[in-house]
Design a protein that fits this description.
Blueprint lengths: L1 E3 L5 E11 L2 E8 L3 E7 L1 H11 L1 H10 L9
Antiparallel strand pairs: 1-2, 2-3, 3-4
Protein name: Phosphoenolpyruvate carboxykinase
Organism: Rhizobium paknamense
Length: 72
């Protein structure tokens, strides 16, 4: 999975997502070079869900089955 910036340049490439010791651990590389390990606690995950909102959560279901728009 890749996260892109506003100019469609790669910010982060996620290699693996797993649970370790009750935390969500995300492993990957930032800017294609720097290894990164990010940890998300259950409390922070719940706080993140508050940022998303119900309407956006519902919109995620069809989003997963769409194709990306064409990039010029």
């Amino acid at each position: 999975m890749k996260f892109l910036d506003a100019q469609n340049k790669e910010l982060m490439a996620v290699r693996k997502v797993e649970l370790e010791n009750g935390e969500l651990v995300i492993r990957g590389k930032i800017f294609g070079a720097m290894p990164m390990v990010a940890k998300l606690t259950p409390e922070e995950a719940r706080a993140g869900l508050k940022l998303v909102g119900l309407k956006t959560m519902i919109s995620l279901i069809p989003f997963l089955f769409r194709k990306s728009p064409k990039q010029d």
